[in-house]
Amino acid sequence: MDEEIAWAGKWITAKRRGKWEYVSRARNIRAAVIVAIDDADHVLLVDQYRVPLGKRCLELPAGLIGDEAGRENDSPFEAARRELIEETGYDSAAIEDLGEYYSSPGLVSESFTLVRARGLTKVGEGGGLEDEDIIVHRVPRAELPAFVAAKRAEGLAIDVKLLLLLSGALLGV
Asked: How far apart are CA 43 and CA 57, in angstroms?
């Protein structure tokens, strides 16, 4: 089936293919999502206001690949390291590829590369760019289910990618 563009903006494109309507990132932009667990078994999380949700969302650190002029050809690993520093204030000695994933394949064609950041070192405050208002959380992995439950009770949205770290607790294994 031919793909039809219904609407295109700077960051997203609404498309149709047959009866299906879906959204894709403009200009083949993708994302890198970072699982960062330090040597003391603390996981780095961020929360920030998300306009589509109308509230703050608790997430793994992440960022776009190829969205900035001069960085269109960045690898997911270059983008992940840059975003980890920018968002959390931590650098990593190594980035491990955990594969490509799709977060909502019935609605969005966007994929993301999941990476594991190893050898973390605090190099700054984090918090993202001026307009991002990112809050960094360094949470003991053993306390993560209770931390997520508390944030949910405070009214934060919880990104589905956190299921990666919560699955054992949710399934009782």
From this structure: 16
- Confidence (pLDDT) at 26: 87
CB count within 10 Å of CB 1 equals: 8
| Separation of first and last alpha carbons in the chain | 44
Q: Which has the closest alpha carbon to 25: 70, 58, 67? A: 67
Residue 123: closest CA among 59, 44, 58 = 44
CATH number of the domain located at residue range(s) 28-166 in this protein: 3.90.79.10
Q: Report pLDDT for 47.
A: 97
Low-confidence ranges of the chain (pLDDT < 70): 173
Instruction: Report domain extents, the chain.
Output: 28-166
Give the number of other Cβ atoms within 10 Å of residue 98's Cβ: 14
Q: What is residue 173's predicted lDDT score, i.e. its pLDDT? A: 60
- pLDDT at residue 22, rounded to an integer: 95
